[in-house]
């Protein structure tokens, strides 16, 4: 059951890990470590909860990795495009990726889980071990910051093009 679920959703798990570490090899390592943890774990009581349970493992493994490595690398446009292939990117404008990367990690992860992974607010709260209201507040603040950043990018673009 676990292996089948992971194989069906491996791109989503990779994207989530990648959103934390911004490095393709490290993201693959995190997904592999997470799969190993999931298979050896006996904590999944309800098979219906597998989605949030495995996302939580990915998040925690990513955070552990960052704590161990104490590094965050900046990703160039070419790397982003290379790893986004095979799936149509609805956000053609790289400014969104840049704006997301500039968010504090606690804001970026709620946006990634909610809008890129299409999880419900309740699922995001469960995965991150947060109160639902905290998740709602972080999403609201993150969207507000993104809106301001995107307006700045658009204004700068108009100045350069105009």
TrEMBL record:
CDD domains: Sigma70_r4
Domain RNA polymerase sigma factor 70 region 4 type: 95-145
Protein name: Sigma-70 family RNA polymerase sigma factor
Keywords recorded for this protein, A-Z: Sigma factor, Transcription, Transcription regulation
Organism whose genome encodes this protein: Lysinibacillus telephonicus
Single GO term (MF): DNA binding
NCBIfam families: sigma70-ECF
GO BP annotations, alphabetical order: DNA-templated transcription initiation
Protein family according to the UniProt entry: Belongs to the sigma-70 factor family. ECF subfamily.
Highest classification ranks of the organism: Bacteria, Bacillati, Bacillota, Bacilli, Bacillales
Pfam families: Sigma70_r2, Sigma70_r4_2
Presence of keyword Transcription: yes
Domain RNA polymerase sigma-70 region: 6-71
InterPro entries attached to this UniProt entry: RNA_pol_sigma-70-like, RNA_pol_sigma-70_dom, RNA_pol_sigma70_r2, RNA_pol_sigma70_r4_t2, RNA_pol_sigma_r2, RNA_pol_sigma_r3/r4-like, WH-like_DNA-bd_sf
